Amino acid sequence: RKEVEQDPGPFNVPEGATVAFNCTYSNSASQSFFWYRQDCRKEPKLLMSVYSSGNEDGRFTAQLNRASQYISLLIRDSKLSDSATYLCVVGRSGNTGKLIFGQGTTLQVKP
Amino acid sequence: ETGVTQSPTHLIKTRGQQVTLRCSSQSGHNTVSWYQQALGQGPQFIFQYYREEENGRGNFPPRFSGLQFPNYSSELNVNALELDDSALYLCASSLFTQETQYFGPGTRLLVL
Fold first, then answer.
1. Distance between the two ends of chain B, CA-based, in angstroms?
2. Which residues pair with B2 in a beta bridge?
3. For A13-65, what is each residue's pLDDT tens digit?
4. Angle at the Cα of B101 (from B100 to B103), degrees rounded to 5?
5. Residue B97: which of A4, A95, A104 has the nearest Cβ?
6. A42: chain B residues, CB-CB within 8 Å
7. Is residue A8 scored above 80 in pLDDT?
8. Which of A17, A4, A95 is nearest to B43 (CA)?
9. Smallest Cα distance from B93 to chain A, Å
10. Can you give the pLDDT at residue A95?
């Protein structure tokens, strides 16, 4: 079983749609949580950190449920430019900043 | 842009050869982490360097080795290349070991 699991998709949605991605992680000692965005053949870019209280950045909302070891990302009013792969990322506790990535979920927003 | 640079951008090698990839961290960052991303997969942690010392290693064989220099730039060396080493190699820099990581554009390695 992978340490961070995501539905790879693809998710095909029309412009303006709301789409939600989910992710589960298996190591309860994980202490930091992120969503990264990766465009085709490019490097991952930090989209947002995820906190237990939930956090929002414009059209993007991220939630963390530590009890269920579950992370979510909600994108409202999808734009064509949101088409990308979204990577769920978990950071371990301890001194090493090792990041553990999910496989990624591909989003394709259609006109 | 993150300010993290990597070279070369692309590389083609044959099995058994050795390769060195380079990374310059963002100004002010003292930590560099290296990741391997195979096609269709998420990046996998290779190792991290902090103040010129290895600070954690993932599940990669010893033929993957690294260095960090006094200016915090870093190298990833891979010996005895195998076909499965074909991947995108990403470096990420951070202010300290546990801080947010910012990725460079990657080096795409093809082993024939």
1. 32
2. none
3. 999 999 999 999 998 888 899 999 999 989 999 999 998 888 999 999 999 99
4. 150
5. A95
6. 105-106
7. yes
8. A4
9. 11
10. 65
